[in-house]
Write a structure and sequence with these properties.
The longest helix is centred in the C-terminal third of the chain and has 20 residues, at about 250-270. The protein is an alpha/beta fold. The strands form two sheets. It has a five-stranded mixed sheet with strand order 3-4-7-6-5. Strands 1-2 form a two-stranded parallel ribbon. Helices cover about 30% and strands about 15% of the residues.
Length: about 270
């Protein structure tokens, strides 16, 4: 029934004439319904940061297995492993037709507007240019949705909040209550769990990464009509939990929660 309801919601969103397309494209025998789109952005003033693994990576296997490739840095942290694994999880849990490979898009790429959901990692070092600020503002105003993940401690939170304020001075970044619809679009999320990186998950020790602020929070920015445009999983690392779900040492409670949250965010983005 959830599969049927999801498809009905996606069709309704398309029929409503949303400015953004649902990103349905490809060959007739392929025709994916969803693209996992990772944003490439300026970080610490360096446009090349995070490009050690080139965009356009082809996953050697779909969705899981013993696949832990060399990852990149900056906006490419956990890329491409997390992207490949998460795409498989979306397919298994919803039966949505998804692309078999990651989809990396630069903020200034005109094709950004084809994808209503975007994922950004390590935004604690985000350093947006003025053109990128204008582009993101247009993206959100046209119905876009951003999930920001894997940033820790007061300094990184302060920088991310500042960069988002440059995009939308009129809308604050606030903690989302657990009764917010984004926590109940597909799964019912009843707690904000701290999702640790691979080492903490596998080998124990603190699940937080910065002593100045240890509390996990899910933050958001909404427009004046209440539509959530940005969700941020602060003091958590969903990307690591997606990538390392197949490691026996990484606890299922973290990987399960990360998949539930990620899927809820996607469905919210595609239906609001």
């Amino acid at each position: 029934m959830k599969r049927i309801a999801l498809l009905v919601m996606l069709i309704a969103a398309a029929a409503a004439g949303s400015t953004l397309l649902l990103a349905v494209q490809g060959r007739p025998d392929d025709s994916p319904e969803y693209f996992f789109t990772r944003l490439a952005y300026s970080e610490n003033g360096d446009r090349g940061y995070g490009r050690r693994v080139a965009p356009g990576f082809v996953c050697p296997e779909f969705g899981g297995g013993n696949f832990f490739p060399t990852q990149s840095t900056g906006w490419g942290m956990d890329y491409p492993g997390a992207d490949c694994k998460f795409l498989g999880g979306i397919h298994r849990l919803t039966n949505l037709r998804v692309t078999a490979n990651p989809n990396v898009i630069d903020i200034m790429d005109e094709s950004l507007f084809r994808y209503p959901y975007a994922y950004m990692v390590e935004p604690g070092g985000l350093d947006l240019t003025e053109p990128e600020i204008e582009r993101l503002r247009e993206y959100f105003n046209r119905g876009g949705f951003l999930h920001a993940d894997d940033f820790w401690g007061g300094y990184e939170l302060e920088n991310f909040a500042y960069q988002m304020q440059r995009v939308f001075p009129e809308y604050p970044l606030v903690a989302l209550p657990l009764n917010h619809p984004v926590f109940h679009t597909f799964f019912d999320i009843t707690e904000v769990m701290q999702i640790p990186g691979q080492n903490a998950g596998c080998y124990g020790g603190p699940t937080y990464e910065r002593n100045d602020d240890r509390e996990p929070r899910v933050l958001g920015i909404s427009d004046d009509k209440g539509r959530l445009m940005v969700v941020a999983t602060y003091n958590s690392d969903l990307g690591d939990a997606w990538e390392y779900e197949d490691l026996a040492c990484y606890p299922e409670k973290y990987s399960g929660q990360s998949y539930r949250l990620g899927l809820n965010f996607i469905i919210y983005a595609m239906t609001h």
